[in-house]
Write a structure and sequence with these properties.
By secondary structure, the protein is α+β, with helices and mostly antiparallel strands. The protein has a single domain, classed as Glutaredoxin (3-Layer(aba) Sandwich), CATH 3.40.30.10. Helix content is 35%, strand content 21%. The protein has 3 helices and 5 strands; from the N terminus they run αβαβββαβ. The protein has a 5-stranded mixed β-sheet with strand order 2-1-3-4-5, with helices on one face. β1, α2 and β2 form a beta-alpha-beta unit. The protein is globular. The mean pLDDT is 95. Bound molecules: FE2/S2 (inorganic) cluster. The site of FE2/S2 (inorganic) cluster has 11 residues, from loops.
């Protein structure tokens, strides 16, 4: 049997070998936006990160499907770290902009940003 730490290390190596450049969380709970639209946005996000070569690679983008990010309106709500940038209306069209301009380009899509919660001091 594999040591737990070794097996967890292998799991981490599979999703973020050598670290990630950003992490995006997307709410799919279904209250901030219709459930079907949220699921569609999540599928789109996963597909586009794979297509763009940003999934499961060194310095790629981690993604997490969140049950609820506690805003519960004007969604789907998305949150990008390390900056702690909150996005409203993260549907397919806007996710494409968030991916290209922020996740890849490093520049937040200001017209969709409604909050910032950077971590740390
Ligand atoms: S339901 Fe999406 S933030 Fe709460």
């Amino acid at each position: 049997m594999t040591e737990p730490a070794a097996s967890l290390g292998a799991a981490m190596e599979a999703i973020a070998p050598g670290g990630a450049r950003r992490h995006i969380l997307l709410c799919t709970h279904g209250k901030c936006a219709p459930a079907e639209a949220s699921q569609q946005a999540w599928k789109f996000l996963k597909r586009r990160l794979r297509e763009l070569g940003l999934a499961d690679v060194a310095q790629g983008v981690l993604r997490t499907r969140a049950d609820c990010l506690r805003v519960c309106r004007d969604g789907p709500i998305a949150l990008v770290y390390p900056e702690g940038t909150w996005y409203r209306q993260a549907d397919e069209r806007n996710l494409e902009r968030i991916i290209q301009e922020h996740l890849i380009g490093g520049v937040p899509v200001e017209e969709l940003v409604f909050g910032r919660t950077p971590l740390g001091d």
